[in-house]
Amino acid sequence: MSNIGSYEERVKDFSWEISEKELEYKKGDVINIGEYCTDRVCKMGKGDKPALIWQGHSGEVKTYTFDRMRVLTDTIAQYLKDKKINPGAPICLFMDKIPELYFSFLGILKMGGICQPLFSAFGAESLFTRLEDAGTKAIFTQKKHVGKIRKIIADLPHLEHIIVVDHDGRKPLRERECAFSMEKAEAVEDFEIYPTYAETPSVLHYTSGTTGKPKGALHVHYSLISQYITAKYVLDLTEEDIYWCTADPGWVTGTSYGIIGPWANGVTQCVLDAGFRAAGWYKFIEDHGVTAWYSAPTAIRSLMREGKELVQQHNLSTLRHLCSVGEPLNAEAVLWSTEAYGLTFHDTFWQTETGSIMISNYPGMKSKPGSMGKPFPGISAAVLDLETYEPKQEAGVVGLIAIKPGWPSMFREYWNNEEVYNSKFKNGWYICGDRASIDEDGYFWFVGRDDDVINTGGHLVGPFEIESALLEHEAVAESAVVGKPDPVNMEVVKAFIALKPGYEPSAGLELKIMNHIRKKLSPLAMPQEIEFLDKLPKTRSGKIMRRLLRAKEWGEEIGDTSTLEDE
Ligand code: 6R9
After folding, report:
1. CB distance 457 to ligand 1 below 6 Å
2. Which residue has its alpha carbon closest to ligand 1 atom 8?
3. CATH for 452-554?
4. Chain centroid, CA 153 distance in Å
5. Ligand 1 pocket, residue 372 CB under 6 Å
6. Which residue pairs from 502-506 have beta carbons closer than 8 angstroms and sit at least 24 positions apart in sequence?
7. Using a 6 Å cutoff on CB, does residue 483 contact ligand 1?
8. Distance from CA of residue 87 to its chain's centroid?
9. How many angstroms does the Cα of residue 328 sit away from the middle of ligand 1?
């Protein structure tokens, strides 16, 4: 018997009014990601199989079976329901990679909430922007991060519940805060899962753009179909695998392939809640017998730096399939991994908006080092002419990467931002915002982004957010932020700043400004370098010429500067 019963039966004891919008979702069958990843797997007889092998930064290990995960996610779902948090409410996850993060994700989906995962490294301002935009109703957090929420809570009237998962009773809780321990709470065995439909919203992932606030890409429960199938056929996950996705669930890779894809397939996965250390990573693979590994080029480049000798000091013989995502995977990294591990990293290309892998080197096809591979079967991808948005027919010509809408995990909207959502579709195609070419065999070759968004270590950082935060510093008159080449992170943030009268450039001031950004936004957004200029280059209409500053950093042709102010 499924835990999802008839719609009418299930909704009767929720306190909310059924909105017209919800009736729109009520098409087709009930499908719930939380149920699919837990109860369904148990019903298939895999309740005793480990679902999560978790390791903390001090080396402690906890293992949870699928059945234990089913109970814990039910317990969390019941807790939210008892708090009278309605289905359809955005609920944020603001935690390190602790087991509570993974189980709250599924618990929220089981009670019909919309899950909004955010990096716990975010500072108060980055957090505020995203909670305010989403109108978030509740937030799961740890006591170490509660201070950041306290700073902004006065301006977030809709944030009703701050759920602290590790409160030890030592310091008093404040208004709207509550303590909840999933392990100590009375276990709930048979939560009646909310009957979400294919089109019911599930996950809200914030992603950065060139201008304006970060945009919330909204996904639906139907995304499961794409995530399930690509986890199976691109990541090549099977019954026997021990899988490790190194991504944090604040990033879409950490949810689509760090939660949904593997668990929907009933696969055991490992999580390491510790910072990057090459030796620590190898030991983790060795200790847990990792077989399938999904990581990012920045990590691979960091591992390359540590050399092959370190690899030889560990027994990595369990590894059998490696994939990469987030940035271009250089041919050099592919060749190095072949020599170091005897295995090739398979590149995969996709986005927060696409929800699942679109273009990749999947098993069974010949991979070409340096290429992103081919569209996943069922996905129709092309490169379009920059002006006409017509697919390029000739091989080797650069155009915009575009995908024909209609795959299950496509985002359904940018939260409260229909205009920007609509602007992403041209001539019947979804435009990714990247450029590539296609060779005569149909392989895609990545060229670069089509906008000013900075990709630092696989994380997209919008220049606008950093520039705005820089302007809040007392010494800053004007600022422009661009990506600068970096051997490990591909790009890092570089800021150009014109100071206010009375301030002089100095190393001390540079450091103060860097720290201002690190605290306000996040370590990723912190400029690694600041260059002080008397004034910033601008167009005649007063727009800062980021393109020009960027070109200088990359040693590229500056191009057309006819609109420059001083010309
Ligand atoms: C999953 C994810 C999406 C942007 C994307 C592109 C870059 C991702 C890539 C890649 C070259 C790859 N990107 N995979 N660039 N080769 N294999 O990364 O989502 O954070 O939304 O970033 O990342 O620029 O448009 P998201």
Report:
1. no
2. 326
3. 3.30.300.30
4. 24
5. yes
6. 503/475, 505/532
7. no
8. 23
9. 8
Q: What is the CA radius of gyration of the chain?
A: 24
Please tell me the distance from the alpha carbon of residue 197 to that of residue 222, in angstroms, as a whole number.
Answer: 8
In this structure, which residue's CA is closest to atom 23 in ligand 1? 326
What residue's CA is closest to ligand 1, atom 2? 351
Number of helices (H) and strands (E), helices first, in the chain? 19, 27
Question: Tokens 């409160």 sit at which residue?
Answer: 167
Instruction: Compute the residue count for the chain.
Output: 567
Residue 544 has pLDDT above 80, yes or no: no
Predicted TM-score of the model (pTM): 0.91
- d(CA 215, CA 225) in angstroms, rounded, equals 24
Task: Work out which ligand 1 atom sits closest to the CA atom of 217.
Answer: 21
Q: Which superfamily does 1-48+66-223 belong to?
A: ANL, N-terminal domain (3.40.50.12780)
| CA–CA separation, 369 and 403 (whole Å) | 23
Ligand 1: nearest atom to the Cα of 253: 1
Give the tens place of pLDDT for each residue, 489-534: 999 999 999 999 999 999 999 999 999 999 999 999 999 999 999 9
Share of the chain above pLDDT 90, in %: 80
Task: Tell me the Ramachandran region of residue 338: left when phi exceeds 0, alpha when psi lies from -120 to 50, beta otherwise.
Answer: alpha
Dihedral Cα 271, 289, 227, 115, nearest 10 deg: -10
Taking the C-alpha atoms of residue 46 and residue 153, their distance in angstroms, rounded to an integer, is: 42
Which atom from ligand 1 is nearest to the alpha carbon of 446? Answer: 11
In this structure, are residues 224 and 408 in contact, taking their beta carbons and an 8 Å threshold? yes
CA within 13 Å, CB half, 474: 5
Query: Residue 459 C-alpha to ligand 1 middle, in angstroms?
Result: 8
Q: Is the CB of 347 under 6 A from ligand 1?
A: yes
C-alpha dihedral over 217, 222, 223, 228, to 10 degrees?
Answer: 170
Q: Is the CB of 33 under 6 A from ligand 1?
A: no
Alpha-carbon distance values, 206 to 45, 116, 136, 413, 529 (Å): 36, 8, 13, 12, 26
How do the domains of the chain map onto residue ranges?
1-48+66-223, 452-554
Contact 124, 103 (CB under 8 A): no
452 ligand 1 Cβ < 6 A = no
